[in-house]
Amino acid sequence: MTAAPSTNCLRSRRYSALEPGPRLIVTGAVHGNEVAGTRGIERVLAEIDSGAVDIVRGAVTFVPIANPLAYAKGQRSGERNLNRRLLPTAQPQEYEDRIANVLCPLLAEHDVLLDLHSFRSPGQPFVLRGPQDNAGALEPFAHERAEARLAAHLGVARVVDGWLGVYAEGVARRRERALTPGALHEDPAYGVGTTEYMRSVGGYALTLECGQHEDAAAPEVARHAIRQTLALLGIAELPLAPPVGPNECLTLAQVIDRHAEGDRFVRSWTSFDALAEGDLIARRADGTELRAPAAGYIVFPDHGALPGHEWFYLARTSARSL
After folding, report:
1. How far, CA to CA in Å, does 189 sit from each of 22, 193, 200, 231?
2. Banded model confidence at residue 113, pLDDT cuts 50, 70, 90
3. What's the pLDDT score for residue 173?
4. Contact 31, 77 (CB under 8 A)
5. How, if at all, do strands 158-161 and 112-119 pair?
6. Its pTM surpasses 0.85
7. Domains and CATH numbers, the chain
8. Is 138 exposed, middle or buried (0-12, 13-18, 19+ CB in 10 A)?
9. What is the pLDDT of residue 298?
10. Among 86, 73, 85, 79, which Cα is nearest to 27's?
11. Is the separation of the CB atoms in 241 and 223 below 8 Å?
């Protein structure tokens, strides 16, 4: 088990094969209390070092603990959320700014990112993928097919898309309300995390949510996904398991912010709880009811959300398949 590292440096381990090939980077503990990825990375590192896994083409870099301060605290964040506004900055103000100044150039040296996370509520693992190929201003992209192929082989059946677009729409509504002018969460760039940054520098990337934080099976989900990625990219000569199916492909359709301390959910929701059209989800402090506009799912409900911040997302079946 990885001991709490120094918070003064970002540790990584790189294996470079003698034959050319893709360059993969695998990250864990971007959020310090999400250790399934860290444990999964440790298992694969042990297999590489023992000779059970041989790196034969390209290169792979492992960052078991991407946020050492948050990891040492056993918390999601050190001083702020590393997976928001992940961009280099000339004048770092917070710990995560300094991490970003090291992590972002490291990401840019690679072609593919597998970012390993976990979540608070019980539920099945799922993968978050990027947009369709496009030349738009928000998130231009040209690797949709490669990303979909990788998503199909990670070993999970649920695939979610639409993150940055729906986040930007939420930012626009937040600005209209002007509750906290100039706040970071009113900037579309605040929606940029590891995968979004990787796509912005020409690569492709997936976030794998390996399961609930304390689920004993979650590290094995991470290990399997890493091995599958190494096999698919040809970096290691490992057997490639077939895709898990049938896939459940969903898209994020809307983000709802919490407006006041008195805003309350009507029940203890967990991600991917199903919603029928008209289902009551929450009530505002003034009594306004928030109901599902259509059949779908609630995703990322944050029972501790601060007023003016994202509270929950609504998802529906995606028109995109793998």
Report:
1. 28, 9, 11, 33
2. very high
3. 81
4. yes
5. unpaired
6. yes
7. 13-246 (3.40.630.10), 250-317 (2.40.50.100)
8. middle
9. 97
10. 86
11. no
How far apart (Å, rounded) are the C-alpha atoms in residues 175 and 235?
Answer: 45
Q: Dihedrals φ, ψ of 38, to 5°?
A: -60, -45
pLDDT in the model for residue 169: 87
Q: Under a CB-based contact definition with an 8 Å cutoff, are residues 109 and 23 in contact?
A: yes
Residue 258, Ramachandran bin (φ over 0: left; ψ between -120 and 50: alpha; else beta)? beta
Please state the rounded mean pLDDT for residues 295-309: 91
Q: Which residue carries 């088990």 as its tokens?
A: 1
- Bond before 243 cis per omega within 30 degrees: no
Q: For position 184, what pLDDT does the model report?
A: 45
Pull the structure tokens for residue 136: 């738009």
In contact, 132 and 199? CB cutoff 8 Å: no
Here the tokens at position 158 are: 């649920």
- Give which of 158, 108, 170 is closest to 129, Cα–Cα: 158
Tokens at residue 2, please?
Answer: 């990885």
The stretch 111-123 carries a mean pLDDT of 94
